[in-house]
User: Fold these one by one.
Assistant:
Number 1:
Amino acid sequence: MPTAPGGPRLLLRRLREIMAEPVGAQDRLDKIVILIAANMVAEVCSVYVMRGDGVLELFATEGLNREAVHLTTMRAGEGLVGLIASTAEPLALSDAQSHPSFSYKPETGEEIYHAFLGVPLLRAGNTLGVLVVQNRTYRVYTEEEIEALQTTAMVLAEMLASGELQALAPVDTGIALRRPVHQKGVALADGVGLGYVVLHEPRVVVKNLIAENVEAELSRLEEAILEVRTSIDELIERGDVAHHGEHREVLETFRMFAHDQGWLRRMREAVASGLTAEAAVERVQSDNRARMMRQTDPYLRERLHDLDDLANRLLHRLVGRNLVVGTSSLPDNAILVARSMGPAALLDYDRSRLRGLVLEEGGPTSHIAIVARALGIPAVGEMENVTALTEQGDAIIVDGAAGEVQIRPSPDVEAAYAEKARLRAKRQEQYLKLRDVPAVTKDGVAVNLQLNAGLLVDLPHLAETGASGVGLFRTELQFMIAERMPSASEQQALYSAVFAAAEERPVTFRTLDIGGDKILPYMQAVEEENPALGWRAIRIGLDRPGLLRAQVRALLKAAGGRPLKIMFPMVATCDEFVRARSLVERERAHLSHHGHPLPSDLKLGVMLEVPSLLFQLKEICALADFVSIGSNDLMQFLFAIDRENRRVADRFDPLSAPMLRALKMVADEALASGCQATICGEIGGRPLEAMALIGLGFRSLSMSPAAIGPVKAMLLELHAGGVADLIAQELEHAGGGETLRPKLLRFAESHGIPV
Ligand code: PEP
Ligand code: MG
């Protein structure tokens, strides 16, 4: 069996010399294939580059007919080259022609070659092309040879990424690295943003690929592995892992991987073949990413993600750069791209330069989504592999309504979105004109439109939208974005600032709704099988009254002589409300005793989110000053669907008869007892749903700022009586769980109501 003269190390050294020569791109590539063929003792070496249209084109060859260069092409999946590109795995065959995927290209003259070894040109997990060597004999390629060719492929991939070969590609397609990508995820925050990628955690760019001294690189790698292992051990041992936002379980997995012999061996082998320590980490990481992109099992994907994180840690150690993007380097039209991100990190960026946010993780009810909505930043989540698909500075478009991104869009796509953004801006202008128009239906029914808020940055929306007040202030957001538990005086300072910003408009504060999916990073997490049904919200408040008492006191003090409205989340029984109310009463008495100014009027309400309250309606309406329906949770518990779980979250329609009947019970009881009922869940902010709610008898809705304009535009064209009749009739006849949506849509269309 022939052995490579000089082996991979010599090959890499010669490659480095060729890379530095002042020659044109085609000449350089031609020299490279000659070099590889000679080094691998192969008769053929060819480079296929993936063009922007996904077609693989022969860019250079030693051994095949030269005339085939830039002529021979393969579609993705076609032939052995196409197979390698689509699987992103090496392929070694002693007889290529007997492989079922072999596709004969007569112009290449390859019929005389039998043995075939091809490897993908991978960069950050993306396939940029395929590198092939062939031999006349029926030979078997060794593991070492496959490894050596992969290492060489990495150097070639970097050459491709540098853009040097761009000029050799057809002008209309370019090469794949710059290919436009259209991808769907989930909508997090409405709006269209056009701009340029800013990676929240920029990848370490490995510039130095080829080792000067292999022994020295091996010890650099070993040192870095040891340091990363030690730092993980320390984090676990210190036990304050929650403080770092890293759960113990994740760190334990990290520790396991950091000792994974297969992974370590692959990196060591890559160094032994002549790469620097960082290039070796990146090579193995790139293979992993390619596997991650093709992995459909969510558990295995998650593990590959962990491995990717670990490789990043190693790269940071080896290259040792500070990777935080300062606001100074933030472009004017920045679109933040991240795997995941906390709300506090988002708030650190200069809002005025942010045009969008794209996350690999993050569902619609995640905290980051809530903050993005509050800041009015178009955002999409669950965008698979977006951090691998994009490069710093790439053009990108975020469509927050459709939950889509366009990466490196073509000019016509960009023009279409620019038009969409212009139209949106025009619509916003029209909504702005409605700001001071009273929210009254065509038949004279006044509807109170309020805002949902949770941060101080939400408050300017009151004046912008003309909302009459804040119907739901989610106090937990202050806790969720803080590094540590906000002190009583910090809480009071926020509430005072909210009162000041709201001016004369009323604000309804909800006490801490933590637990479930709302986790405070600095609080010891409680392991629960079903956190949504676990120790959360008012349950924590009543069991740990110190926390609730401090918050209530801060609210009472901040209100000073103004009216104050407080409501309690996740109340399941009247008794819970009574206990919470007496806690407030005791605090009020305490402050009064010490001469503090008290709220001029104090109203205590209950959130209706747990279905058990539907069967205590008369009693709870008699006890509480107002009821606010948290339809997000009510839907979750009524239909037993996890609101965070995309598989089931949209399975049932809030406009279906069972939900509408539940809501009607509340509207009827509120009317009968004179207890005000508001809706503060997401459904109140969707025009068609809001129309139905008005039809059920609700006269107060609280919603996200962006929803006020569309809901007001809807109700200005609505006859409340008409939709009330329709719903009453339909509910009477609806046999099972069917949805009234089509009928309501038809009603809206036939009456010219914009929904
Ligand atoms: C709800 O459940 O509808 C609600 C308004 O509360 P949150 O979304 O904060 O749980
Ligand atoms: Mg809720």
Note: The domain at 434-750 is CATH 3.20.20.60 (TIM Barrel).
Number 2:
Amino acid sequence: MSITIALAGNPNSGKTTLFNAMTGMNQFVGNWPGVTVEKKEGALKGRNDVVVVDLPGIYSMSPYTPEEMVARDFLVQERPDVIIDIVDGTNIERNLYLTTQLTEIGIPVVVAVNMMDAVDKRGDEINAENMSKALGCKVVKISALKGEGLVELAKTAVEIASFGKTSPQHIFRGTVEHALAHIEEAVLHDLPDERQRWYAIKLFERDGKVAAKLGVDGARLAHIEQDIRACEAEMDDDSESIITCERYSYIESVISRCRVLKHANEMSLSDKIDLVVTNRVLALPIFVAIMFVVYYVSITSVGALATDWANDGVFGEGWNLFGAESLPVPGVPELAERFLNFMDCAPWLRSLVTDGIIAGVGAVLGFVPQMFILFFFLAFLEACGYMARAAFIMDRIFRRFGLSGRSFIPLLISSGCGVPGIMASRTIKSDRDRKITVMTTTFIPCSAKLPIIALIAGAIFGGAWWVAPSAYFVGIAAVVCSGVILKKTRLFAGDVSPFVMELPAYHWPVPRNIALSVWERGWSFIKRAGTIIMLASIFVWFTSNYGWSDGSFGQVDMSESILAVLGSSVAWIFAPLGWGSWQAAVTTLTGLIAKENLVGTMGVLFGVADEENSAAMWSVFAAHFPALSAYSFLLFNMLCAPCFAAMGAIRREMMTAKWFWIAVLYQCGFAYAVSLCFYRIGMFISSGVFGIWTIVAAALLVMFLWLLFRSDSGGSKKTGWNASAASPING
Ligand code: GDP
């Protein structure tokens, strides 16, 4: 009889090195059936009756990635005779997570602690005997690279394949064990004893695929659901997180029994920082505070000063370089004026340059200093390692709402630009999570939306401290609420995939890299101002200055222009939101070409270039927008469909036209509803205005709250079984 050895371990633990060392040239490479995951098999050197099967490198046996599915199906269904679990000895904290799962399957396990040469070099010690006792399985120390310990490993594996037994030593907390015992009793008593535990834990985690494989019927699922819920209520966490946390505390205890670090009590600075920064209680307030400071400083305080300087100086009157008496340096409008006079240009060209291009492009470019400050902060946070922590922290929170922390990375990227943000969602394996992320990621204000935020914060709210950060947090709230609402619908039924990411140690960023990142982002912003924004500004200038008057086409008053006619024909749509002027409607539409246009178009429409300084110029704009209308306008434009470039990305990532339209209509509908509720309820509270739209807004709000808090019928993880379970249980 031949013996099958399965080789399992984390990526980078040295599996390939070990496999090659064990099998030599006797390898067969193919694919696992139905997936593109590579399958390697080979006979153990000198033992043609022993087959080594190399499983894909995985961090856990969750049913989410193809690699995890392949590994777990093979182990649970094909049941090899023995598992060699290769563990990176320099990183046992992370590697043992998989080990705790492997020992529960009921197949003999031998843990191969690899990279012992590196461990020895550091002067650390790993006690194999103690580890073996703590885990309940054999442990052999090896160095795959140096070929040390491999003979003993192979011998041990072959030995325990026939006679060995692995009995998991890990005992979960009382309430969890209680639930597991109930599950075993209710649905698993027909299985051999040693296999029950793994299945019980998976059922406790509400693994629909396992439930389906076991053929557990709806009644029995409902029965064990009660046990799971009781445990969740007692531990105030969802069942999957409970298991994960318990595993980690068990791993800690295993490590404390078997490893001595040479520099034991010297916690690295990075670990010390993480004690605070990723602390369960403090993490979120710290994250909020950091993001608040970043947005406050770059948009409201320092950034606004810099932008005023740019607007008043470069794009305004100019400034005196060395005090009031010195030589004045003219601003761009003044220079352009002189140049146009010098060239003796026609009035229309003069108007095109000053009222069109300089007003539009200048309005956008005026925000460049704010952009640069923001980009600097984001690049710094990313480079020093904080952003990885942010994703980790957000995962804990997102998970409560049925979203995956993986969604946070696209969101983060979207704070620069939605297009790469949408593309980054490709890394999300779960189809449901990916679609939700693609649909919601542009709710986060991208850099092109910042000018309009800064403008409204400055011109309408007098630089109030809360406006800029609020736009960011509205974006996050929109993502979270959408996630909660969408995942409860049938369209998005499915599992939340867990999130494994390595946290790099904190380090001082290399200034050059930061400078590069800031420059790249900033330059692309400037380039867009010079290209697409310029074209759009020219378009807006032309259509807002020309039209038909008394039957002939020519320069007309703005209120009679083509743009006014176009704008007026759609303005009624936005009137209920508190900004029904044709200018606001047109601005919103040009925002679809590029979001910077929101400011560029306003610059042209409100004749910004004519005014003397930035305060006066935007006061014209402020007069147009009462505070509530302005914030409602901001909300709509933050949340509605993104620019065409981002819509193109959505179309590509969604693959089908149907899903593209679902995404865009959802975004616009959501934006409309939020703005309507905000404006109408705000008007009612602040000035008692009541009407049919107030009722509509109230009804929408109630519906929104209902969608948000209703129990889950879509089959998400938290309150039900995923769709592939034998029978979903409704809340
Ligand atoms: P896999 O991703 O698990 O297949 O890992 P590989 O076999 O590709 O190994 C990852 C890295 O670890 C490679 O650079 C190997 O050379 C190195 N490596 C593997 N085994 C050992 C070992 O025993 N000691 C040391 N120092 N390095 C090793």
Note: The pocket of guanosine-5'-diphosphate is lined by residues 9, 11-17, 57, 114-115, 117-118, 143-145 (CB under 6 Å).
